Amino acid sequence: MKKTLLSLSILFTLAANAQLTQANHGPAVGNSFGTFQCDSVAPGASGTGAIWNYATLNIHTVGTLKNYVSVASTNTLYPSATIAVGSATNDTYYYSSTSANLKYYGGNMNANGVAATLNYSSPAIFATYPMSMGTSTTSATAGTVNVTSPFPTSFNFTGNCSVMVDGTGTLILPAKTFTNVMRVMTSQTITATINVNSVNYEYYAVGISRNPILTIATSTINSMAGTSTQSIVTVLSNYAVVGINEVEKSDIELSVFPNPATTLINFTTSSLEANKVIAYDVTGKIVATELMEIGKAKMNTSNLTSGVYIYHVVGKNNQVLTTGKFNVTK
After folding, report:
1. pLDDT tens-digit profile of 43-55?
2. CATH for 249-328 (1.10.8.60, 2.40.50.1020, 3.30.1360.120, 2.60.40.1930)
């Protein structure tokens, strides 16, 4: 009984001390992640000790994958931005990230059939660090909307952005459960010729991934044509194997051969921490897993089609020790 009470005490202490900071939340150059689109779901309850149960979430793994990469921003249209996060030229977002805050300067918007580019002269503050349960910030925004379709036009806007950590608890997904999760609710209003109201719920597994595990985004557009609402739900494409502390990831020396491979590929390392090798295809699907024995693993690639694959070498505590790519040719 004492042991149980001690364990509960430790869990509550971790939850109380959980914080989002630039180190575990803000976009960082070199960071990459993928998302799959899912069927719509409700955001669930707020408050401490919440249980967000999406065990039956329908994840569309075919045709919805988006791979995002964070790079240093060089776009002169966003002179104050330092980081660009994008999956394509028409799906890129611009930020400045410091230890004090995260500011959003705009990027692409595509909702309810309206495609536009946002450029903030007064940025939306997406985070004021550190963030913990109940932390909130509000910022006044202004800038320009450039609509590219269906009717090209340009106009100025004003608005506001409110961000709050409105819940902490447990996130249950079809293949994995995350504890010590913080939910960040971001509400934005853009007032102009077209009025846009958006509410995003992002669920972060604190210390596990700087990218949201699950995102529920709803946008409502009011225009002369009427009112329309669209909801988009996305999940981290490799969430089922995310159990790593990205901040504490440490690369190890690893030999991978032959590369390209045909029927077999070898992984060898002198690290005693290496426990297994996990291989993924370009959609984020696990295609092979091999345990490492005395720093060695042989992976059968005879059933894999020709192409590029990503591997993670995972340690005994489920942390990623190193990552890389290999090719299969037939």
Report:
1. 999 999 999 999 9
2. 2.60.40.1930
Contacts of 327 (CB under 8 A, 6+ apart): 259, 260, 261, 307, 308, 309
pLDDT tens-digit readout, 147-176 = 887 778 888 999 999 999 999 999 999 888
- What is the rounded distance in angstroms from the CA atom of residue 245 to the CA atom of residue 265? 27
Tokens of 47: 């408050």
For residues 285 and 175, what is the distance between their CA atoms, to the nearest angstrom?
A: 13
> Is the Cβ–Cβ distance between 171 and 181 less than 8 Å?
yes
pTM for the whole structure: 0.70
**What angle is formed at CA 238 by the lines to CA 235 and CA 82, rounded to 5 degrees?**
75
Return the H-helix or E-strand segment holding 215. strand 214-223
- The DSSP call for residue 64 is -
Question: Burial code of 229-264, b = ≥16 C-beta within 10 A, e = fewer?
Answer: ebbbbbbbbbbbbbbbebeeeeeeebebeeeebeee
Residue 29 DSSP symbol:
T
Question: Is it the case that residue 250 has pLDDT exceeding 80?
Answer: no
